[in-house]
Amino acid sequence: MDKKELRNYYKQLRAGLSEEEREQKSLQIANQLLKMPIWHRENYHIFLPITRLFEINTEYILHILHGKDKNIILPKMDGDVGLLKHILLTEQTILKQNHLGITEPCNGIEVQPAQIDVVFVPLLAYDQKGNRVGYGGGFYDRFLSNCPVTTLKVGLSFFLPELKIEGVFSTDIPLDYCATPDGFFRF
């Protein structure tokens, strides 16, 4: 399937999960992350879920990051230029929903992509080579292209990978890993 077809298909699949199923699967994904060789780093970038789009609840991962005393960095959309800013989460950080219903920091210390060690990447679908399908805005591909090659890119998905995604562009940045409720894939 091509990206458009995959977007529609996986949006429907996610919407078909009950709230209880999404919560259980989100917790299982967090537990799978604990088995991965990614915890020796310091700076972790993580998205906050868009609940109306039935995304993975990343609160469980936030608890792990806090417990491991990691630096947590949250994305903030700069929609005027189609880029993300990256804000260090501290006790003083104020979170608020933007016009798209995405919870993001209003204030805080900006972190440059070169400083980020691990990125938990939102996605709708991915394939066996680590190619991913997001919402189509390109925010994460532009962001990831500015990260060092050593930055680990970790997808989070309720579902198994597709065999192949049709229409992958040279500007699409593949994942290094993807965690699912039942395990994880390394690409």
> Which CATH architecture is right?
3-Layer(aba) Sandwich
The number of helical segments is 4
Whole-number mean pLDDT:
96
The CATH homologous superfamily is named NagB/RpiA/CoA transferase-like
- Strand order of the main beta sheet, please? 3-2-1-6-9-10-11
Rg from C-alpha positions? Answer: 15 Å
Quickly give the structural class. alpha/beta
Low-confidence stretches: none
Catalytic activity: (6S)-5-formyl-5,6,7,8-tetrahydrofolate + ATP = (6R)-5,10-methenyltetrahydrofolate + ADP + phosphate
Family: Belongs to the 5-formyltetrahydrofolate cyclo-ligase family.
Protein name: 5-formyltetrahydrofolate cyclo-ligase
Keywords: ATP-binding, Coiled coil, Ligase, Magnesium, Metal-binding, Nucleotide-binding
Structural description of this entry:
The structure is a single chain. With 187 residues, the protein is an alpha/beta fold. It has one domain (3-186): Rossmann fold (3-Layer(aba) Sandwich), CATH 3.40.50. The protein contains four helices and eleven strands, in the order ααβαβββββββαβββ. The protein has helices at residues 3-15, 19-33, 59-67, 139-145, and strands at residues 43-45, 71-78, 83-88, 95-97, 103-105, 118-121, 125-126, 132-133, 152-156, 177-180, 183-186. A seven-stranded mixed sheet has the order 3-2-1-6-9-10-11, with helices on both faces. A two-stranded antiparallel ribbon has the order 4-5. Strands 7-8 form a two-stranded antiparallel sheet. A hairpin with a 4-residue loop joins strand 2 and strand 3 (83-88). The protein is globular and about 45 Å long. The two termini are 20 Å apart. The mean pLDDT is 96.
